[in-house]
Every structure is written in structure tokens, then in C-alpha cells.
Design brief:
This protein is of the alpha/beta class and 141 residues long. Helices cover 37% and strands 11% of the residues. The protein contains six helices and five strands; from the N terminus they run αααβααβαβββ. The strands form two sheets. Strands 2-1-5 form a three-stranded parallel β-sheet.
Length: 141
């Protein structure tokens, strides 16, 4: 678990970052250069994203809140723009369900592979997460 620091600009030494983030055996989560300049907040976001299950769709605000800063959705977006290629970026969307404009076709394809329903550039159903439809209640007559 990361230490909470008062300054978001504080950088961890590479050896602490390496012990904080478990690397996947086939591909590193972040490059060595990236790890040297990551804040605790960024490390928390990377760890949270790594743990998301297939089909679990969250918002930028959800990501920021999970890392301890609920009002930092834009910071979460900037983080993904810098480090997204090594993390499951396609599972993060705007709060209303719309896909960000940078790679909507690729994101739609990746979400469909995880049984997420996307229509007109918007997530309308997902197996889990914010956009999962609740199970039906009551009886049909």
C-alpha cells in the first residue's frame, strides 16, 4: 500500500514504486522511466486499474476517487493519456457513459470483447461496475 503524502508533487524513488506495483509477468505495467516520475496518486490509480475485472467499466471520477481524490477526474484523464498504453484504459469512460474521443473505435472493440454494450459511442450496459444494469425485480404475470 502506498504512503499518503501531503504534496502530490512528491516523487517516490524507483525501488519503492517497484515494490508498490506488481508487474505482470508478460508485460510491465509501466516503464522504468514512468515509475521514476509517478506520484502516489498515480501509483494508486495504476494499481486500481490493474485490478479491474473484464467488463467492469468505471468513470474518470471513479478512478480518481478509488485513488483517494474524488474531485480529481481530470487528473485521472491526464494520467491515462500518459500511461494508458500499459493499463486497461478502455474500461474508463465519462460519467455519462460516453467514450472519450481519442480512440472510440478501439475502445468500443475492446469493450465488446468484454461483453460491454456500447451504442452510439456510449456504454449502455456492462457486466459489472457503474454501468451494470440491476437484475430484474418482481414477477412477470
Amino acid at each position: 500500500m502506498c504512503q499518503i503524502r501531503k504534496s502530490s508533487a512528491h516523487r517516490l524513488p524507483p525501488n519503492q514504486v517497484m515494490s508498490t506495483i506488481d508487474e505482470a509477468p508478460s508485460r510491465p505495467i509501466l516503464t522504468t522511466i514512468d515509475r521514476e516520475i509517478m506520484t502516489d496518486f498515480e501509483i494508486e490509480m495504476a494499481g486500481f486499474l490493474k485490478e479491474l475485472d473484464r467488463g467492469h467499466v468505471i468513470t474518470f471520477g471513479d478512478l480518481a476517487a478509488a485513488a483517494g481524490r474524488p474531485s480529481a477526474a481530470r487528473m485521472a484523464g491526464r494520467f491515462l493519456s500518459k500511461h494508458g498504453e500499459t493499463l486497461p484504459w478502455w474500461r474508463v469512460v465519462y460519467s455519462c457513459g460516453y467514450l472519450p474521443p481519442n480512440n472510440p473505435d478501439v475502445q468500443t472493440e475492446k469493450l465488446h470483447e468484454e461483453c460491454v454494450t456500447v451504442s452510439n459511442g456510449r456504454v449502455i450496459d456492462a457486466p459489472s461496475g457503474r454501468f451494470a444494469k440491476p437484475p430484474p425485480t418482481g414477477r412477470l404475470s
